[in-house]
Each structure stands twice: as structure tokens, then as C-alpha cells.
Amino acid sequence: MIQWLVGAIGLSLVATHALAADRIEIGIGYLGHTGIKSKLSLVEQPSGDDGIAGARLAIEDNNTTGKFLNQRFFLEEIRLKDGEDVAKAATALAGRNGFIIVDLPADGLLKAADALGDRTTMLLNAGVTDDRLREQDCRASVIHVAPTRSMLADALAQYLVWKQWKRWLLVVGSHEADKLYADALRRAATRFGAKIVGERVFEDTGGARRTDSGVTLIQRQMPVFTQQAPAYDVLVAADEGEVFASYLPYRTWDPRPVAGSAGLVPTSWDAAQDQWGAIQIQNRFIKLNSRRMTARDMQAWTAARMIGEATSRINSGDPKSVSDFLKGPDFSVAAFKGQRLTLRPWNLQLRQPILLVDGRMVVSVSPQEGFLHQVSELDTLGVDRSETKCKLH
Length: 393
Hints:
Blueprint: H1 2-21, E1 24-33, H2 52-69, E2 71-80, H3 86-94, E3 99-102, H4 106-116, E4 122-125, E5 142-144, H5 149-162, E6 167-173, H6 176-192, E7 195-202, H7 214-225, E8 234-238, E9 258-260, E10 265-267, H8 278-289, H9 295-314, H10 319-327, E11 343-344, E12 349-350, E13 354-357, E14 362-366
Parallel strand pairs: 1-2, 1-3, 3-4, 4-5, 6-7, 6-8, 8-9
Antiparallel strand pairs: 10-13, 11-12, 13-14
């Protein structure tokens, strides 16, 4: 009996050793920036770990499934300061990881992608909404998890048109990103049958945003700024620079709703999302981070979960095999949005519903009922295959 027990323990140790030796290790890099863009509202100031916190949660989720498949995921983080070498950081991460989640401005993402050249490392864009990265500046090594400006604008336009709020007063900030968002809104208006009846530009003249007399000045300024506009149903603001849009609701000259960068806002995720099992991930995120989950957190979580889903489906951590599966017809990922998300093969953009939120509740989810498409209703949001300028090599 003792001999049998000793033998059984020996066999168990050998099996355990073999199992450990065969474990698949999957490294995921995270390349972000230390700078945090401030918001006008004090209650909306982003955390220093905005984005990366979602990736950390996804690593836990991946490892929960991975332990049954003898897979282990780990995350290596690099946060760059202004002026630091993006290409050098990306190359260093690629030397140790087959996948890199990137949350950098558009030019930084392109530098990272071009620095890696023909490497098999796959980059997943979790932050940048620029359409050009999926169009004329697309790269075969970059998958886009963050939605585009055109997807966000189309999602908003569908709802406004469904509400019969078809006459828009468009107010645009003076920063370049504001102008790009305004372009997406103009395109959406044309696409879905809305009409921009007037446009105004809000110049960013600098100065303190919060002063003792701020509320008084804003209360005087905003009604005058929106006075004498053509008859309109809704004011749509393009203010990615966070200069003026949050001051518009309840302060316009005419009593009209505000949408776009304030009021009714299109986003990939919101702390108010509670449908399709979302409360489960919201609660786990709060427990882990002592704050609520943002769109950037969810985009990074989805990026890491896409890798986890692919490796579990093909039972391999080989970067090229995983990348091929992600780009193939059999890939999909669940992300608490009511349907499984897939990749557009023509520009590697993740198809996804867009939430329309007001800061407290999810008002609606686009695509809206009645906006049809021959392949997927999600392709009514953003650039469709017939419109794309992307040529993947």
C-alpha cells in the first residue's frame, strides 16, 4: 500500500512537472502615456490608471479561463512621458510580448507600428478614434478596438433622426480634433437625412476655466453665443478639446437639447451601462479599482480579452496564429453589449454598438431600429467596405 502510494505521488509529480513545462505563456504589452487629459467637470476627472486598469482586469479574466487550458497571461506596462521615444519603447515591448495594447495619439501609434515593421507583433489600438488610421493610414499590424469618430457621429445621428430632430445647429471648437469630429458629424448628417442649419465656432482663447466669477460669466456668455440662430431642433457640439461644450446644456438662448461632446454623448462604454450582464463587470471593476469603469478602460479590457478569446479558441499563444484567427471569419468576442463583436476585414476595425449617454443613464444604443445593412447592422456605423480607402498589405 505504501509502495503504491509513493508510486502514485511520484507519477503525480511527474505529470504536474510535465503540465508546468507545457504551459503556454502569453505576454501582452501596454504602451500608453503618463499624461492625463483633464475634463471641465471636477466629477469627471480621469484617473491616472485610466485604460490600463481595464487591461489588468482582462488579464485576470484571461487567466481564469487560461488555468483550465494551461495558459498563463501576463501584462507588461510602459507609460511614456512627453518626448520619450515611442519607437524604442514599442521595440522593447515587442521583444518580450507578441501583442501590444496601444493607447497613444495617432502619430504615436503609427510610429510604433512602423518601428516594428515585419515583426509578427500585433498592435491593438485602444484609444485613438481618428478615422485616417483605419483608412489612408491603415496598417495590417494594427487592430482597432476604439470606435472611430465616424462611428460615434453616425450612432448619434441615427438617434437624432429617429427622434425627428433633423435640424442641427453645429458648434465647433477651434482645435484640430474638434474639426475632425465636426467633419464626422457633417458626414453623418448627410448620410442619415439631417440638415445642419447653422454653424458657429467657439474659439479657445485660453485663460482659467474655473474662477470665482466663472459661473456668472458663463451664464452671460453662452446664451449670447447661441442667440439669433436659425430655427433648430438640437445643438450638436464638437469639442474634443474640452473647452466649452459642458457649459452649453441649460444655457442656450433657445430651450433646445444639446448633443455631441456634451448632453447626449456617444461612447463605447459608460459607468451607467447595466444591460446584458454589464453589472457583473462593473462591480468587479469597482472592487478592483475603487472607481467606475470608463470607455478607455473598457476598450483596453476588450483588447486584452480579444487575445484571450483567440488563444483559447485555437489553444495556441503563437502571435501569428492568434493574429490570423483574430482577422478570420470565426473570431468574435463578447463585451456586454448585447451581441458578439467581430472585426471588419477591410480595415481591422472592431464592429460594436455605441451607447448614447447623458451622464447618469444610457439613453439609447445604436444602431437604431430601422437602419438596415445587407451584412451587419453594425456596419451602418462608420466607414463601410464600399467607402474604405484602406489597402492592407
